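Name: ABC transporter related protein
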Amino acid sequence: MEKNEKVLSFKSYFESIARTKKVWVWLIGLVNQKKWRGLMWWRYGTILFTMAVELAEPGVVGIIIQDIATGRTDRLIYLFSAIVVLEIVGRVARWKSTIAHEWIWSINTESFAVGMTKRFFEKSQSQHKEESDLNHESLDKTRDKAQDLMTGKSTDMFETICLMVMALVYLTFLSLTAGIAMFVIAVIHIMWSAYNNWRAEVVCEEIDNDFRALNRYLAARWQNVERVTTSAKREREIRIIAERSREICGRDRAFWLWENGSSTLREGITSLWVITVFALMVHGVILSGGKEAGLLFPIWIWTSAIRGNLWRFGWLEREIRKHMPRIRATMSVLEKPTHVSDSPTATDLVPNGGVKLAFERITHSYPKGEPVLRDVSFEVGKGEIVALVGPSGSGKSTLEALAMRFMDPDSGRIVVNGQDLREIKVDSWMRAVGFIPQHSQILDGTVRDNLLYGLHEEELAGKDWEAELQNLLAKLRIDFGKRPVGENPLDIVVGRDGVKLSGGQAQRLMIGAAVLKKPRFMIIDEATSSLDSTTEKAVLLGLDELLKGVGTLVIAHRLSTVRRANKIVVLSGGKIESVANSFRELHDQSPTFRRMADDQDLEIE
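Structure predicted for ABC transporter related protein:
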């Protein structure tokens, strides 16, 4: 608690306001368009008008009471007509406001989805792996909070402020003393609420972080219950979870007990203040002989409106503050410059023909780490199959990422048909490359949807793909076991992340999708690890036939999968240890290859 007390200062409070302002500016930038701005002005204008109309009604009612008390009845019909008119006008204005609200909600929904997705897609794949907040779960939570802020909480806050200001203006018009008294308590209440909310943000940030860590711990144990059970750790895990939960909940409870006590005291003082102001007004009416007794009704309504909305103002400020850390974290990562982008002089890859890929003196390291690649040079010729092998951590995956241009090397260059890869537009290179990742990336939808995903509109238009897809299924052994008679396998729904497929089925589906692009160059990362040996052999034969003449870089962990390679490059410690055209040559030249071959009981022919 001592650390948090040091943070609680006027300077840090205003720094927090500045950070919050940046978030609002960023969110407005995502949705800022002419129609949206017009709708926001209309929405806030109608809210302001509605509040003025609704708060005017108690004043008219007060005049009616006053007239009845004094025996004046000549203008009652006009006063009642005024109430009816105010009610109708207020309802129409609120209706118009809700129409604007629905339009704003739609624009915000579309703008947040498009704006965040655009920034998300712009980031390099290396950033997607490095940044903890650059993932679909974080974006989904941020989008929901942003929508709530921009469509809900901001409007609620404006309406609350309008109610308080209007009520204060009307009250001051009737009684300057009452207006000044309510203004004083409003300032005190708002400052008190601001302090409590700021304290909640500071104190609870650490508590929230601890709760999230506990939730991750729980999720890991629930998802891996088999390991917990087979390690005889059930009782230990329950004890740890109980201790951590008790400690975090204790700190959370202590703070909120303090906050509830402070809020109760604040609300009690405000209520007593309002009652006192009203009592003094009643006393004044009594002293005047009760001539203005009717005005007590609007005074009570307006003072109560100020009191109620002071509480609402504090609650809304707290809710807005709760949303800020999540949005601020996402904003920070989405606005970072991408690691990989097209240079001003970048051009499209020359269309058609094969691709020759050369690594020239590549050196690369990750932040705060030693180089994982050191002066690596080799090439993959047109139509050539080159395999990269080596122990874990030797740099195979880094070379794959560099070849895909998920990142750029620290030094050296990658050359495609004589052109530096950095001078080729990223999208142009992606359209030329087929990529089969080690871990399948299946999209929700049908088998057909996933196979055709890599093709572009002009490739899909005007062509019946059915026969080619069925042929692909047969060549790559993409089958789905038993299914209803007559069901087209291409129409099978695979589920989110391919949940309805086995690991082998998902891998074959990814292979089929990559092949269907008719790539000019192929990068394969252990694409058959989930297949049995018989199916693997058939799939590899199918791949050889379908990719005939296509240059291929294969990242291999199992040596048996690369016997057909024209060239094998052995990496060790980020350097090339050996390059050969056969297992026999490598076995004679490379200690690393011999160890791997012995570990895998590989037969050297």
